Prior knowledge:
Rossmann fold; 2 domains; six-stranded antiparallel beta sheet; FNR_bac; ferredoxin-NADP+ reductase activity; nucleotide-binding; Riboflavin_synthase-like_b-brl; EC 1.18.1.2
Amino acid sequence: xxxxxxxxxxxxxxxxxxxxxxxSLRVTRDPGFAFQAGQFARVGLxxxxxxxxxxxxxxxxxxxxxxxxxxxxxxxxxxxxxxFSPRMAQLREGDALYVEKKPFGFxxxxxxxxxxxxxLLASGxxxxxxxxxxxxxxxxxxxxxxxxxxxxxxxxxxxxxxxxERLPDNPALAAYFAQRPDxxxxxxxxxxxxxxxxxxARLTALLADGRLETLLGEALDPAQVKIMLCGNPAMLSxxxxxxxxxxxxxxRRGIPGNLAVExxx
Length: 265
C-alpha cells in the first residue's frame, strides 16, 4: 500500500434498514484510529472498473460506533445515481472498505459546557453522529437530560429506533436512569405518515409553533438547553434561523455556545 493516509478494513456485518435505501455497515477498526463521538471519517473504495486497485473514491461518514467500540459502524442512505453509496450498499462480509487514519469534524460535546439539557435534533441519516454519543456513557454523565428528535418521511426510515428506546435498560446507564427516570426523551417524527402521539409535521414546523417544547416537556431556554443540529441543508437553515431568534448561537473565541450545526451531505 503506497498511501499511508488510510488503512484497509474488512466488513464484518451489514444491516439493511430499508432495502435499496438505508443500510448500516460494521467494519474492523485499526488499533491506532481514535476519535471523539460526533466526528466523521473519510471512507474509500476503488474505481468501479478496478475493484482490486487502491481507493480513489472517498466520502465522509460519521461514526455510529462509540469511541471505545472494537469496530467501526457507518449508517448511509443510497443515492441511486451516486458514484459511491450504491457500491457501498453492495458490500458484504469479507469485503474491503478503506478508512483514512485521521478523523474529522467538530460536532462534538466539548463545544458545550456540562450540565443542563442536550437536545439532539436530526433529519434522516444525520442521526449517525448522535448514536455515537448515545452509546458513550460519558455523554450521560455530562448532561442532566438528553433529548433525541429524529425527523424522517416514513416510519420505516426510523433506523436504530429500537436501540434508542432500549437505552434505559442498558446496564452501563442504569445509574443515570435510577437517579432520573426521564433522563432520555426520544421523539420520532414522520412527515408523510402519522405516528402514535406525534404530530405529522416537519421538525422545523414543530420548533416554530412551540409544539416541540410541549411534546418534550421542556422550555427552549438558551440558559439551560444545548442544541445540536445535523441533517439536510434546508432543515438546518430553517432551524438555525428559528433558534437564533430564541437566543441560540455557536460558541466563538473560546466562549462555549449553546448551538452546534453540521450538514449531513
